[in-house]
Design brief:
Elements: H1 13-39, H2 49-64, H3 77-84, H4 88-95, E1 103-105, H5 111-120, E2 126-129, H6 145-152, E3 158-163, H7 170-173, E4 187-191, H8 194-197, E5 222-226, E6 243-247, H9 255-263, E7 270-274, E8 293-294, E9 300-304, H10 310-316, E10 319-320, E11 326-330, H11 339-353, E12 362-365, E13 368-371
Parallel strand pairs: 1-2, 2-3, 3-4, 4-5, 5-6, 6-7, 7-9, 8-10, 9-11, 11-12
Antiparallel strand pairs: 12-13
């Protein structure tokens, strides 16, 4: 359609513009259709959707990594552009793969982005990370409450959760009202930054129902806690725990309190304790106990205490561990002159805590690692 400017009038211009717009729209739609037909011939677009979906999931998992104390929340926008903006077929497969949209790095996502992830993930379990990307950035401790409130509305779908929040923000995320939805949270990683604990000692959120109601963690299996002042009360720790890691940055607790909690966790398979025992009191390396708690599933133990191995040996002496495979006992100030003494203690300790014929495959001391079938 060729229009000479001299024949156009003020009254006919709007109609002609509309006709041009319609033609432009139709040409663009035809170009898109041709591009889709062309792309369908490429090898990457002939890949079956279930295989392409698996490739996308592996890619997204590699970007975010496994949720842990040392993992850093990664913005999702780079992988979103790479997956959904390549071609129409890839976009359709990506939008139809609910597992792609389950990892939500809260500090990188505005509310509307979180809403989109929640919707696209369907009913799949969510992995939520509220921690900041780096410790020198003072942003994540103050996550906007509207983001936390949105996640609270779908808390029943959260399977794994990493929090780096001060205590007053927990009620904004953990639902306080009773619901009939069963708890699905199986992994909880919680910690505080170094600068946060320099001026305050934060109580253990799990010990206060106004912060973390017990029903929200009734199915918890993995618990990783760092830099909180832990309350060693058996009623605080879910009996469903299979993996427990406590890294204490405050004064330790009485040995008996720690032992009582660990003894109550019969499903425990892996245990890591760092600086949890009060070493100020006089602790004997070994004692004559009338009865030891049996933890039949506990296979991996890692213990670390400042300046001493005695507290760790004494702690171990409270248990019988028929499934123990890996044992690591370390301190920050090892002295080679104590090596023979430590071996002598272990020769007494190991037969006490492990039933006959149950082998330890790896024993690690601060002076070296030993692999053995029997100790």
């Amino acid at each position: 359609m060729d229009i000479k400017p001299e024949v156009m009038t003020a009254s006919s211009a709007p109609s002609l513009i509309q006709q041009f717009d319609e033609k432009i729209f139709n040409y663009r739609r035809a170009a898109v259709s041709l591009s889709q037909q062309r792309n369908a011939l490429l090898p990457a677009c002939r890949c079956p959707p279930e295989i392409l979906s698996t490739i996308f999931q592996l890619y997204v998992t590699s970007v975010h990594g496994r949720l842990s104390q040392t993992s850093r929340a990664q913005p999702p926008f780079e992988w979103i552009a790479g997956v959904t903006h390549t071609c129409h077929y890839w976009r359709e497969v990506a939008l139809g793969t609910s597992m792609l949209w389950t990892i939500i790095p809260v500090t990188h996502c505005r509310t509307e982005v979180i809403e989109a992830f929640v919707q696209r993930s369907g009913t799949a379990p969510l992995v939520v990370d509220t921690a900041r990307e780096a410790e020198e950035e003072e942003i994540a401790l103050f996550v906007p409450s509207d983001r936390l409130s949105l996640l609270r509305s779908v808390f029943g779908r959260i399977g794994s959760l990493k929090v780096q929040l001060t205590n007053e923000l927990y009620p904004a995320l953990f639902p306080q009202e009773f619901t009939n939805t069963p708890a699905s949270l199986h992994t909880l990683v919680m910690g505080l930054s170094y600068e946060t604990i320099q001026f305050h000692e934060f109580p253990f959120p799990l010990a206060d129902e106004t912060f973390v109601p017990k029903r929200t963690i009734s199915s918890l299996q993995h618990l990783d806690v760092r830099r909180y002042s832990v309350t060693w009360d058996p009623s605080v720790f879910p009996k469903t725990l299979t993996h427990l890691c406590i890294d204490n940055m405050h004064e330790g607790s009485p040995m008996s309190d720690v032992v009582n909690v660990i003894s109550s966790l019969g499903a425990l398979q892996e245990l890591t304790l760092c600086n949890v025992i009060d070493i100020g009191s006089n602790i004997e390396p070994l004692s004559l106990l009338a009865k030891r708690s049996i933890l039949r599933s506990l296979a991996i133990i890692s213990l670390f205490e400042w300046s001493t191995l005695t507290a760790s040996y004494s702690f171990l002496d409270h248990f019988q561990l028929p499934s123990l495979r890996n044992l690591e006992v370390t301190t920050d100030y090892p002295t080679p002159t104590n090596f023979e003494q430590d071996l002598a203690i272990l020769r007494i300790l190991i037969p006490r805590i492990i039933i006959p014929q149950a082998p330890i495959h790896r024993l690690h001391l601060p002076f070296g690692a030993f692999r053995t079938s029997r100790c």
